[in-house]
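Ticket #4471: structure output looks truncated?

Reporter: J.K.
Steps to reproduce: submitted the chain below (110 residues) through the standard prediction queue, then opened the result file.
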Amino acid sequence: MYKKILFFITLLILPSCTTPTKNQIENKNIQLVGKWEDKNSITNYLDNGTFKGQWGSRTATGIWQIHQDTLKMKFLSGHEPYYIITHYTKDTLIIKSITDNEEFIKTKVE
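Returned output as attached by the reporter:
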């Protein structure tokens, strides 16, 4: 009986130790500041709310913010992509584009 109770408590506690819940994401427990790389880009999110990125041979800058579970980016060129944050650890960020559902797996490089 005690083993079953301990097992169920472990199931409840362990996921919250490794991956944030949607509520934790919405409470902005995400430390996005730093340099992140995915298959298309390397983006440096700065603590002043700006970003600098490299997409192939093209560089771009803009501003960013997290609102609830959404990463909002606004490029100086006018492009404004929004991404749902589906997973976050200190080393990995998975975001999904709201417009086309494309998923990006970002790894922290600095």
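Triage note (M.O.): checked the attachment and the full token line is present. The longest helix spans residues 2-18.
Status: closed, working as intended.
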